[in-house]
User: What shape does this take?
Amino acid sequence: MSLREQLCAYGRRAVELGLVIGTSGNLSVREGDRVSVTPSGVALDRLTPESCPVVDLDGHLLEGDAQPSSETPMHLAIYRTTDARAVVHTHSVFGAVVATTKTELPPIHYNALMLGGVVKVAEYATYGTDELAASVRAALEGKRAALMANHGGVTIGATLEEAFEATRLLEWLCEVYVRALGVGEPAVLTDAQLAAVVERALNPPEFPRR
Ligand SMILES: [Zn+2]
Assistant: This one.
């Protein structure tokens, strides 16, 4: 599957899973110094490969007639400063709830380690601006996910599949957190408990054969 075909496939999946509504949300994938990105103003389940523009890392249009997503400056800022090869941005419900009410998503489940532990909420700035790109980049430092105040969430990965799965995990963690807050005070895992999880993952038990 070409990179632009991947954008179409994961765009459809994002709509199916209810991670985006209307023409919100955008995805991109990088190969060398070329970034294929979803176009502006098109619902993610209505993309065609040809409708997805290709830009360079400075935002110059290289291929395609459509305008790149308005959030392209954020995607490019992430590519210029991390080793990410794909970026997924959505307005998923529980991510938006946490990003509207909290300053971070604490590690209430050990799977948060897959996103880098605590997920920070990037300071609010108008969509599409360099200010928003800068605040998201800062929140992403050393992480695979960030929430965006009063907006949504963003995840990165070595592939589009990885970035997309990180978005699903981020939304799941946010949903667990929000639902837990409705029941009581969620317990937050300690640094020692998280370190023990890493230790366990690095040294899985061996099951001897009979
Ligand atoms: Zn957005």
About this structure: The radius of gyration is 18 Å. Residues 24, 71, 89, 91, 127, 151-152 surround zinc ion (CB under 6 Å). The chain has a mean pLDDT of 96. Strands lie at 26-31, 34-37, 54-56, 61-63, 86-90, 104-105, 119-122, 145-148, 152-157.
